[in-house]
Amino acid sequence: MTEHSSRLVVLAGPTAVGKGTVAAYVREHFPEVWLSVSMTTRAPRPGEVDGVHYHFVDDAEFERLREAGEFLEWAVVHGRAKYGTPRRPVEAAIAAGRPAMLEIDLQGARQVRQTMPEALFVFLEPPSWDELVRRLVGRGTETEEEREVRLTTARHELAAAREFDVIITNDEVRHASEELVSLMRSTASTGSLAPHPRRNEN
């Protein structure tokens, strides 16, 4: 990835598909990739570190930043917590020519498309619906009511795959992560998406 050739990559997909896990793998194994750290008003989950996985803030601080125009995108997710992408770090990374990636939800991806249409939008899909349900239930971080809300949302989110430039199936974290970084590298060097057509569209 050469200087001044970076292109913002926006990774999105349905709830529980493993976006955060893929992003964590990229962070650990591909340190040349700059990953945006989102801000949220929800409480940390077990193992999450403030400033690494998310910036955890209260609602008042989130609203202060939102009103000041400090978010590239923001949304209320599942009718509960607020999430947002701080604008300035993203712009600084792109200006420095670093390969930059946002890992956000579908609402956020749509907002970024309005402000940065030149970005590359990648949809992470599960191998199957049953596997998505298994992953959501297996992580055990939501109540039964919250899981039902997330699964209802996920059905709508899966239908949005056609809005994206590229589709990657998260059948295995390492494979999906390496495919994503390979895509970023080829896009940076060629400036096009030719080597990577859409996958699994049916």
TrEMBL record:
Pfam families: Guanylate_kin (PF00625). It comes from the Bacteria. One of its GO terms (molecular function) is ATP binding. It is found in: Cytoplasm. CDD domains: GMPK (cd00071). Residues 6-185 form the Guanylate kinase-like domain. It is an enzyme of class 2 (transferase). InterPro entries: GK/Ca_channel_bsu (IPR008145), Guanylate_kin-like_dom (IPR008144), Guanylate_kinase (IPR017665), Guanylate_kinase_CS (IPR020590), P-loop_NTPase (IPR027417). GO terms for cellular component: cytosol. Keywords: ATP-binding, Cytoplasm, Kinase, Nucleotide-binding, Transferase. ATP binds at residues 13-20. Its EC number is 2.7.4.8. It catalyses: GMP + ATP = GDP + ADP. PROSITE patterns: GUANYLATE_KINASE_1, GUANYLATE_KINASE_2. Essential for recycling GMP and indirectly, cGMP. Belongs to the guanylate kinase family. This is Guanylate kinase. It comes from Oryzihumus leptocrescens.
